[in-house]
Design brief:
By secondary structure, the protein is an alpha+beta fold. Strands 2-1-6-5-4-3 form a 6-stranded mixed sheet. Strand 4 and strand 5 form a beta hairpin. It has one domain: Nuclear Transport Factor 2, Chain: A, CATH 3.10.450. The protein contains 4 helices and 6 strands; from the N terminus they run H-H-E-H-E-H-E-E-E-E. The N terminus is likely disordered.
Length: 158
């Protein structure tokens, strides 16, 4: 019999809560809801959209801390009409430092009220979740782009 992996200590409820937290990230952006978005992250979380942005020739700084993430998301995608859909959520590893999870996220971005211009991204999210008094929260999110289509300038608000 194989030795159990550390992910075996996660319950089905834990796994559902992790996926629900990721869904909260998507909903917080798509619904322009800073309360929902903020609840996803730890106070000292980091969000690194740089790898995805560089795939489109764009520079994007690492966002640090819950408030930095809220401010950065509000300034960059906040004004846009967006739709984020997450799938293929996989728990890779769980240990004392948190739970490492990956997911595939399809994200569509339109300038406000404009439907004939878009930037559609197919990304891989690499996340670390930790258990806090508020439940499962992300302490790290790195967004890597698999492929994209449309107009990258949309991501710059142009």
């Amino acid at each position: 019999m194989a030795t159990p992996t550390p992910t075996a200590v996660l319950t089905a409820e834990d796994r559902l809560d992790l996926a629900d937290t990721l869904a909260g990230f998507a909903a917080g952006i798509d619904e322009r809801d800073p309360t929902t978005l903020g609840a996803v992250f730890t106070d000292d979380a980091t969000l690194d959209f740089g790898p995805a942005a560089r795939a489109m020739g764009i520079d994007f700084p690492v966002l640090e801390g819950r408030q930095g993430i809220l401010d950065g998301v509000a300034a960059s995608v906040g004004p846009m009409d967006t739709l984020h859909t997450a799938s293929n959520v996989r728990v890779l590893h769980a240990d004392g430092d948190g739970v490492r999870v990956t997911a595939l996220v399809h994200a569509i971005h339109h300038p406000p009220g404009v439907r004939d211009r878009h930037c559609t991204m197919h990304n891989r999210y690499d996340m670390t979740f930790v258990q806090t008094d508020a439940g499962w929260q992300m302490s790290r999110l790195v967004i890597e782009n698999r492929f994209w289509s449309g107009d990258a300038q949309v991501m710059l608000g142009a």
